[in-house]
């Protein structure tokens, strides 16, 4: 029997936060996010708060999966990421969390994050437990306000490329690979520098890299790595599979 993919979305459903259902290995991170604890290096990577219109806000889904019975981060823990199509007008070629701009029909930021994740990856919103929202953050290059939503993928569903014009690759990346010191680096251009990851010849940097770096640090999953050696951002991207517009 052929199963249509993706299944229809259910806008407005499963939009309440349920931190009490976080697995034990995620609970400390959920608590820290709820209490507004964001490490200093995340603040350095992102832009300072700005006054912006609510209609121009966006949301992204930080979707983590892993053994629900584990007490510490399990070996099968993953986070869902996409590769933005090089033809996109903004942030083209970047590795990113699923997400996008809020629509007037979105009930809240959770609804927006789940809708966008469904549009880009086909993830079933009912397979996700929304846990907590980060304080509103800003993209450094544009000042654009973004609401990250941390979710637990309690029933991993099929995901894949749904709209190649938006995201041409979708993957659940192991947390162990992100934490591996050999996959970590610091990139810089002009007067800016920030954490990055080299995964499958892609470079994860900027807003997404900063959030992943903060997540590893705050959750206690980080391994010692050499953050003092800096690499030129443009040279690093030119050698990657990102296919970003280097302008």
Provide an overview of this structure.
- This protein has 247 residues and is an alpha+beta fold.
- It has a domain at 19-174: Nucleoside Triphosphate Pyrophosphohydrolase, CATH 3.90.79.
- Helices cover 21% and strands 26% of the residues.
- The protein is built from six helices and twelve strands.
- The strands form two sheets. Strands 1, 2, 3, 4, 5, 6, 7 and 8 form an eight-stranded mixed beta sheet that branches. Strands 11-10-9-12 form a four-stranded mixed beta sheet.
- The chain starts with 26 loop residues before the first helix and ends in a 9-residue tail after the last helix.
- The model has no long low-confidence stretch (mean pLDDT 92).
- Keywords: Hydrolase, Magnesium, Manganese, Metal-binding.
Anisotropy-based shape: globular
Order of helices and strands: HHEEEEHEEEEHEEEHEH
Low-confidence stretches: none
**Radius of gyration, rounded?**
17 Å
Protein structure class: alpha+beta
What fold name stands as the CATH topology of the domain at 19-174?
Nucleoside Triphosphate Pyrophosphohydrolase
Largest sheet: 8 strands, mixed
What is the CATH architecture annotation of the domain at 19-174?
Alpha-Beta Complex
Number of strands: 12
CATH hierarchy class name of the domain at 19-174: Alpha Beta
């Amino acid at each position: 029997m052929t199963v249509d993919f993706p299944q229809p979305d259910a806008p407005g459903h499963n939009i309440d936060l349920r931190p009490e259902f976080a697995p034990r290995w995620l609970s400390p991170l959920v608590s820290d996010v709820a209490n507004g604890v964001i490490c200093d290096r995340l603040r350095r990577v992102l832009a300072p708060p700005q006054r912006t219109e609510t209609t121009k806000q966006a949301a992204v889904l930080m979707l983590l999966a892993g053994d629900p019975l584990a007490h510490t981060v399990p070996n099968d823990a993953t986070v869902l990421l996409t590769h933005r199509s090089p033809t996109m007008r903004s942030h083209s070629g970047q590795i990113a969390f699923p997400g996008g701009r809020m629509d007037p029909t979105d009930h809240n930021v959770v609804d927006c994050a789940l809708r966008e994740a469904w549009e880009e990856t086909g993830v079933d919103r009912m397979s996700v437990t929304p846990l907590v929202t980060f304080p509103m953050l800003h993209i450094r290059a544009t000042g654009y306000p973004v609401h990250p939503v941390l979710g637990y993928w309690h029933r991993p569903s099929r995901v894949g490329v749904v709209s190649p014009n938006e995201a041409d690759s979708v993957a659940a990346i192991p947390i162990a690979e992100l934490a591996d010191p050999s996959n970590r680096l610091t990139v810089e251009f002009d007067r800016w520098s920030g954490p990055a990851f080299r995964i499958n010849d892609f470079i994860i940097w900027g807003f997404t890299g900063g959030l992943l770096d903060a997540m590893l640090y705050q959750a206690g999953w980080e391994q010692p790595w050499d953050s003092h050696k800096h690499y030129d951002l443009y040279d690093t991207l030119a050698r990657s599979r990102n296919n970003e517009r280097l302008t």
